Automatic annotation (TrEMBL), chain B:
<keyword id="KW-0653">Protein transport</keyword>
<feature type="transmembrane region" description="Helical">
    <location>
        <begin position="98"/>
        <end position="115"/>
    </location>
</feature>
<dbReference type="GO" id="GO:0015031">
    <property type="term" value="P:protein transport"/>
</dbReference>
<dbReference type="InterPro" id="IPR000133">
    <property type="entry name" value="ER_ret_rcpt"/>
</dbReference>
<dbReference type="GO" id="GO:0006621">
    <property type="term" value="P:protein retention in ER lumen"/>
</dbReference>
<keyword id="KW-0472">Membrane</keyword>
<dbReference type="GO" id="GO:0005789">
    <property type="term" value="C:endoplasmic reticulum membrane"/>
</dbReference>
<keyword id="KW-0256">Endoplasmic reticulum</keyword>
<feature type="transmembrane region" description="Helical">
    <location>
        <begin position="121"/>
        <end position="140"/>
    </location>
</feature>
<keyword id="KW-1133">Transmembrane helix</keyword>
<protein>
    <recommendedName>
        <fullName>ER lumen protein-retaining receptor</fullName>
    </recommendedName>
</protein>
<keyword id="KW-0732">Signal</keyword>
<dbReference type="GO" id="GO:0016192">
    <property type="term" value="P:vesicle-mediated transport"/>
</dbReference>
<keyword id="KW-0813">Transport</keyword>
<comment type="similarity">
    <text>Belongs to the ERD2 family.</text>
</comment>
<dbReference type="Pfam" id="PF00810">
    <property type="entry name" value="ER_lumen_recept"/>
</dbReference>
<keyword id="KW-0675">Receptor</keyword>
Amino acid sequence: KEHPQSHDEL
Amino acid sequence: MNIFRLAGDMTHLASVLVLLLKIHTIKSCAGISLKTQELYALVFASRYLDIFTHYVSFYNTVMKLIFLGSAFSIVWYIRRHKLVRRSYDKDHDTFRHYFIVLPCLILALLIHEKFTFRVVMWTFSLYLEAVAILPQLVLLQRTRNIDNLTGQYVFLLGAYRALYILNWVYRYFTEPHYVHWITWISGLIQTLLYADFFYYYFQSWKNNVKLELPA
């Protein structure tokens, strides 16, 4: 599962 | 990056530029809520804690710097600039910060994806951004005269959120395992807060009359 910190949105 | 995301970011950028134009050129912050601007500064400060440690792209880093820099300079202008601060409508901008900040902090401590300082702060910034517009909307309702730039500013901010929802829908269907419940629900609530404003904004546009929110 993708880590929220790696979220690429602003 | 898809077209909705880019359009959303550009609309967000445009909203900041419109506000800076009003403040810097006209030297007025009439109708602008300092409370909302301070909340946005807090939103970006807590969300972009990893700006120098977690690299995503050149685009992301530049945009983060712009949003951080503009948020703090707007707050500085309204609080410190000798001409701008005179136009600040202090008596009507009475929303209390802690009514908004405290519940968001508690919610972030309770509902998050991972219990680490950075993730909790990141989640807090999402919850806070969702409701940070409330003092501004309250101020608009109390202000009989909403000038053009203030109206455009709030409209662009709302449009940015609506475009981000389209971006999520697009990404959900095009990317594998793209599910972010916390981001989506807070983003949806944030956009719904603009529904009333949008209604009156389009009414005034259609009938070509000055924007005014009912008390």
